[in-house]
Specification:
The structure is a single chain. This protein has 382 residues and is an alpha+beta fold. It has two domains: 178 residues, Ribosomal Protein S5, domain 2; 181 residues, GHMP kinase, C-terminal domain (Alpha-Beta Plaits). Strands 1, 2, 3, 4, 5, 6, 7 and 12 form an eight-stranded mixed β-sheet that branches.
């Protein structure tokens, strides 16, 4: 891409522990890894934005100096969403012209958050706006939440921006405090396996937003039963309700809401235990907690297609997999696993053969990718 002055790489991310809790201000962990989004671009001085994709058809065209743009329901909405979020704060005068490319055709790895992050960095660069890492995270998250319509937290963007090679991100999404914890020297080597079920999905049209509403309704139930003054839904989070209140009220509220809360409180504990396991180099325990997290995703959060649950059950019995779970929201998409690199090929063969025995219709789309942790979103020097 020698015709372009700038090149941004925004990695995909996986969340080993802390699933489905960032929108309730919970504790999360994450890895950035060495596959992701590449954006090559030049600055335009007339405000025009022109983007093409090596993944999707068509071109995106709009002008940052014009009033906010209506969603069109295509891949260009992510650039328009960033334009919306940045213009709210700064007022943009310069645009970009460029090409974007993704490196994995897989859902559940927060590719949309990686795209948004790259666009935030690019338009900020074009307009000489200096953003902190946390500002990049907040603006990209706001674009996805307010413009795209996904009621997310900041987990995805935080992993993509703050991640470091051979390190685990530990983030409190309530306070925005975080630590990047280096791999313990005593920890065995590991890699990430991305196991694509063959299914695709859209979070906006899935039950993702419904689960967010159910978590907030659980919090409302607990507040109502114990006389805590109710807040608006947009200011109601499970993190604000002590676990003791949940124990007092869980049998009073509808089972659906109690199960969502059970996942939140148990995941909080798993994240704490997982961070300790990571710090002490106990990869076996860290992996065990990842499996337990996925079990709660199935039973309490009630996500996971038949295909993803099948992959999870195969991983449980597969030698060389320390731990695994659904990636992302758990609606179709992919599973992720921490694996022993020495056993990659036998893992590939066992998971593939057992899965396709159950779902032969995905023989052309099922795939396993092996990846390594990597640094967060950055400009790549030519």
């Amino acid at each position: 891409m020698e015709n372009y002055k700038y090149h941004i790489f925004a990695p995909y991310r996986v969340c080993p522990l802390g699933a489905h809790v960032d929108h309730q201000h919970g504790l999360v962990t994450g890895f950035a890894f060495d596959k992701g989004i590449d954006l090559w671009f030049n600055t335009t001085h007339d405000g025009s934005v022109t983007l093409t994709s090596q993944t999707y058809d068509g071109a995106v065209k709009f002008n940052v100096r014009e009033p906010s743009h209506v969603k069109e329901g295509n891949w260009g909405d992510y650039a328009r969403g960033v334009d919306y979020a940045l213009n709210k704060r700064f007022g943009l005068s310069n645009g970009i012209e460029g090409v974007i490319k993704g490196s994995l055709p897989v859902g559940g790895l927060s590719s949309s958050a990686a795209v948004l992050t790259a666009y935030v960095m690019a338009l900020a660069k074009a307009n000489s706006i200096n953003l902190s890492k946390m500002e990049i995270i907040k603006i990209a998250s706001e674009a996805e939440r307010e413009y795209i319509g996904l009621k997310n937290g900041i987990l995805d963007q935080a992993c993509i921006v703050l991640g470091e090679k051979d390190s685990l991100l530990f983030l409190d999404t309530d306070s925005d405090q975080y630590r990047v914890i280096k791999k313990n020297p005593r920890m065995p080597e590991f890699e990430l396996a991305i196991i694509f079920s063959g299914l695709t999905r859209s979070l906006v049209s899935s039950d993702y937003n419904l689960r967010v509403a159910e978590c907030k309704t659980a919090a409302w139930n607990m507040m109502a039963y114990t006389g805590i003054p109710l807040k608006g839904m947009d200011k109601t989070f499970l993190r604000d309700i002590p676990k003791e209140t949940y124990e007092l009220t869980k049998d009073k509220m509808p089972r659906r809401f109690a199960k969502r809360a059970e996942h939140f409180y148990s995941e909080y504990k798993r994240v704490r235990s997982g961070v300790t396991a990571w710090e002490t180099g106990n990869l076996d325990l860290f992996g065990k907690l990842i499996f337990e997290s996925c079990e709660s995703s199935i039973k309490n959060y009630e996500c996971g297609s038949d295909e993803l649950i099948a992959i999870y059950n195969i991983m449980l019995q597969c030698d060389g997999i320390y731990g695994g779970r659904f990636s992302g929201a758990g609606f179709k998409g992919a599973c992720i696993a921490l694996i022993d690199p020495a056993k990659k090929e036998q893992i590939r063969e066992q998971v593939r053969s057992e899965y396709l025995r159950m779902f032969p219709e995905y023989s052309q789309s099922f795939e396993i990718y092996f990846c390594k942790t990597d640094d967060g979103a950055r400009f790549i020097e030519a």
